[in-house]
Every structure is written in structure tokens, then in C-alpha cells.
């Protein structure tokens, strides 16, 4: 069983912790346990319940109405939502639930069904990337078992690699991007996603991959002169210092533009070195690619 904090629920559902506390006081669908120090924690079942409740509430159902529904009724109502965005969010919720319960075959089947219906790129942008954004916070806080993380990320990685290998662009853009992850960063999915997006648009990619020392990045950059260096930071080693990394790579590779996206860019407030730029959201990443 996983134990989730109220902050985990807030990050996964978009429902503020204050609101969740009010729901607990007024309604019956959430009954958190408490630690010896009186801190709330939530089980797998409660996480799955609030994912569905948050979805219904977002798309027009009153909480007092939801509170009178059975678990099966709540689930049935999520399937009845007709809005396209609601259905995409429901599928992302399903992926989270399958991961939590280690239902790996169902996780892969959900992805495969969406890929067959919508294609690889829409599956990536509408389902996989939102899933990674929402679940990434659990990886950072170690509230997901490493086995859960490895099983689902390997499935997603396979889908991304198939997408990369199969995509063919009918245009060629005279740009080259060098893609890498710094030492201590092994979460490759965001970078593979970027590889797919670039290749599908006719942009050349030099892919170094995960856990790359700056000296190796510097060597390839000097030898191949890419237009841009790109990295996506999801969750790095505990001793990783983002400010030190930014200053170090700026000093070592000052003449190349460096773009950084991912979870770790969200809370950074200090001034960036002159050749480094953050892309904090998927829409910013997509706009950047479109402008290349």
C-alpha cells in the first residue's frame, strides 16, 4: 500500500489541500488515516476515489451530489462525461490508478488503445505528457514505489522509441539540437518526447541521453556545433544543485544556447545565465519548437 500526503492529492488532482480538508469535514467519501504524529495520509483507494471526484466536480457535478453516489456510480459518471478534455483527463486518471495498483497490462492496453485511435503524437501530448507532469511530483517525493515507476516508465519509453523510429518528416529544417540529461538525471521520458517532436518536424537531433557529464556534452558541442543544447529535468540525485549546474554549464559551454524544461524549472527564481532559457510548460515547449 502507498501512503499519500494531502499535498500529493493536491498535486495530482488540482484540488487545494484546504478544499480537501473541508470535503473531509462535510462529506463521507474521504476518511484519511493519521500517523502517530497526527499527520493525514491517504491509501491507494482514497487516491483513486478523489481522482474521480475531482474530475466530476471540475466538469459540473456538485460535491453534495457526488457524496450520495456509490463508488460504481462515480466511476460510471466519469465515463459519461462527453467533453474531449474530460475524457483525456479520465484516461490520465486511469493510468495513474493502473500504476498505483501495478496493473501493468491494463496500463499498456490503455495507452495502446489511445495510440490506435489518435496516433502517437496525440497520445504523447494529450495523455503521456500530462500523466508524467502529474505523477512526476510523486517520484520527487518518493511516494511511488520504485517498482511502480520502473514498470510504467519502461512501457512509455518503448512507445516513445517506436514513435521516434517510425516518424518520417516530409520537410527538413536546417537546425540541430543536442539532447542530454546531466549527471544524476536518469528520467529519460521527457527527453525522448522532445526527440520525437523534433524528428517529426524535420529537425536533426544529436541524442546523448541520460546521466551525461558536462565534459562529454562540451566535447560533442565543440565537435558538432549544434544550434541548441536541450535538457529536461524531472528528478535528479539529492546532491544535484540546479544553480551550480546552470553556472557550470554556462562557464563550460558559453557560446551555445541552452534550453531547459521539466519539473525542476518550476520553483527556480534566480536570474539565469545569459545563454540559458527555461520552458516551464508543455505549451512553451511546443511554441519553441514551432518557432525553430
Can you give a write-up of this model?
With 292 residues, this protein is α/β, with parallel strands linked by helices. 30% of the residues are buried. The protein starts with 5 loop residues before the first helix and ends with a helix. The mean pLDDT is 87. The protein has two domains: 46-163, Methyltransferase, Methionine Synthase (B12-binding Domains), Chain A, domain 1 (Orthogonal Bundle); 170-291, 3-Layer(aba) Sandwich (Rossmann fold). It is built from 13 helices and seven strands. It has helices at 6-13, 17-26, 44-58, 63-67, 71-80, 84-100, 104-118, 120-140, 146-166, 189-200, 214-224, 242-252, 282-291, and strands at residues 33-34, 40-41, 173-182, 203-212, 228-232, 257-261, 276-279. Strands 4-3-5-6-7 form a five-stranded parallel beta sheet, sandwiched between helices. Strands 1-2 form a two-stranded antiparallel sheet.
Topology (SSEs and partners):
Layout: H1 6-13, H2 17-26, E1 33-34, E2 40-41, H3 44-58, H4 63-67, H5 71-80, H6 84-100, H7 104-118, H8 120-140, H9 146-166, E3 173-182, H10 189-200, E4 203-212, H11 214-224, E5 228-232, H12 242-252, E6 257-261, E7 276-279, H13 282-291
Parallel strand pairs: 3-4, 3-5, 5-6, 6-7
Antiparallel strand pairs: 1-2
